[in-house]
Amino acid sequence: MSSILGSIIRRNVSKVVLVPQFEPKIIEDVKNNKYKPRHHPGTRSREVITAPSKVFEATNNLISKTHHSNLEKDAKVMWKYMIARQLPPENREIVENMHKIKNEFMSEIGLDNVDIEETYSEEDIDLLNKGVRRQVNKVLKERTYNWQPVDYTEHISRVYLWSRFVPDYAVLVKVLEEIYKQLPDFKPHSVFDFGSGIGTAIWATHSYWPKSIGEFYCVDTSDHMLDLSSLLLQGGRQNKQPCISHVVYRQFLPSSTTNQYSLVICAYSLLELPSQKHRIQTIAKLWEKTEDFLVIVDLGSASGYQVVLEARDYILSTNNKRPGSAHVFAPCPHDLACPKQQLANHCTFSVKYENMRFKRGERIILPENFSYVILRRGERRDPLTSWPRVVRPVLQKSKHSVCKLCTNEGSLAQLVFTNRKHGV
């Protein structure tokens, strides 16, 4: 079945034929030396991202060297847990599984086609029902993902700082580069960060717009995470002047919907919500607070991709009711259904980062996979946001290169560049 599906997908992909060509304005800008050919607006940085030096110093001050080995061990456990994290099961799914398990069990004991009430006494039926319930609950527990919210205690928060600040920061720097590169004149005046944790979004946005942002509004239910975020800004020393000012911390979403923010960020937080209903309600509230951009980021796992796609589809569904109210700014060049949602390899991206080193040794450079979407209010205005998007690493051969693209028609296409035809 999988090979048949694969052949169908390959046939569908090959139907789209693209002819590579630049927009006339880009060619003119290259001729006028506004851009170099390798640095046109469609290119993105491939540099290895490192943590800000002030974060390294603050982390060194916060974490005693005697705790390094314990944190390193717990960090590996945390990462294994996070990457395997699944969506919390919905009530309807649990009920459906219960009925399925019951039918399986009744079939196994040969009672699936028996009229129980006509065949057995009330006492026997009562005993049978109790036995069936026990078996169903046992199997249901084995088959159902035991989702629990992460309790970010003081120790777990420090483990997260030790292991996750740099990859989370690198991902946000990579994602926000889309806005920075495409809209060089964009100057956000405020940032709203839901699930702010240890404050990676503060540092990432500040790296691009250090002068224009006048307010960082951070929301996280864990007071330990908020304390660490504040201490990082103070260099790891309490009561010290923070290096980034105008930061506000809260544990809950504000009830007021009047205040809007230039950038609203929700990174690595949707999988911490207990149901689809809670996720949709949260996205709706965040969209209400969005003046310009809503940025959704999560893990590059199947579950991470799913919650990002869920948020994308919800916001675009509101656009169907009010045309022109929203569009996908990045990475999709279209507002249609994601063409990769039915494939095994979901739409994920990668960034390389250098982990913090607290002892001498070689540089530790690691990849981090992630899923994301940037949604913007209003109609799609910039033609650059409709350029086809490379959705997997380019395959480079001796005489040609193969690009897998997502097009503005909402389909996948394959484009081959050759020396003979394109001079590359």
What does this structure look like?
The chain has 424 residues and is of the alpha/beta class. It folds into three domains: 24-44 and 389-418, no CATH class; 53-87 and 151-377, Vaccinia Virus protein VP39 (Rossmann fold), CATH 3.40.50; 91-143, no CATH class. The protein has helices at residues 2-14, 24-31, 53-62, 68-83, 91-108, 116-119, 122-143, 154-182, 200-208, 223-233, 276-288, 302-321, 419-422; strands spanning 49-50, 190-194, 215-219, 247-250, 261-267, 290-299, 326-330, 349-354, 365-377, 389-390, 395-396, 400-406, 412-418. Strands 1, 2, 3, 4, 5, 6, 7, 8 and 9 form a nine-stranded mixed beta sheet that branches. Strands 10, 11, 12 and 13 form a four-stranded antiparallel beta sheet that branches. Strand 3, helix 10 and strand 4 form a beta-alpha-beta unit. Helix 8 runs parallel beside helix 9 and helix 11 packs across helix 12. The longest helix is centred in the middle third of the chain and has 29 residues, at 154-182. The chain is globular. Residues 1-16 have low confidence and may be disordered. One of its GO terms (molecular function) is methyltransferase activity. Its main location: mitochondrion.
Please report the distance between the alpha carbons of the first and last residues. Answer: 39 Å
Number of strands: 13
Given helix and strand content, the structural type is alpha/beta
Query: Radius of gyration, rounded?
Result: 25 Å
Per CATH, the class of the largest domain reads Alpha Beta
* Integer average pLDDT: 86
Count of DSSP helices? Answer: 13
The helix-strand sequence is: HHEHHHHHHEHEHEEHEHEEEEEEEH
Q: Into how many domains do the coordinates divide?
A: 3
**From the 3D coordinates, which CATH architecture of the largest domain would you assign?**
3-Layer(aba) Sandwich
Spans of 5+ residues with little confidence (pLDDT < 50)?
A: 1-16
The CATH homologous superfamily of the largest domain: Vaccinia Virus protein VP39
InterPro entries: Mt_RNA_Methyltransferase, Ribosomal_Rsm22-like, SAM-dependent_MTases_sf
Main location: mitochondrion
GO molecular function: iron-sulfur cluster binding; metal ion binding; methyltransferase activity; structural constituent of ribosome
Organism: Diaphorina citri
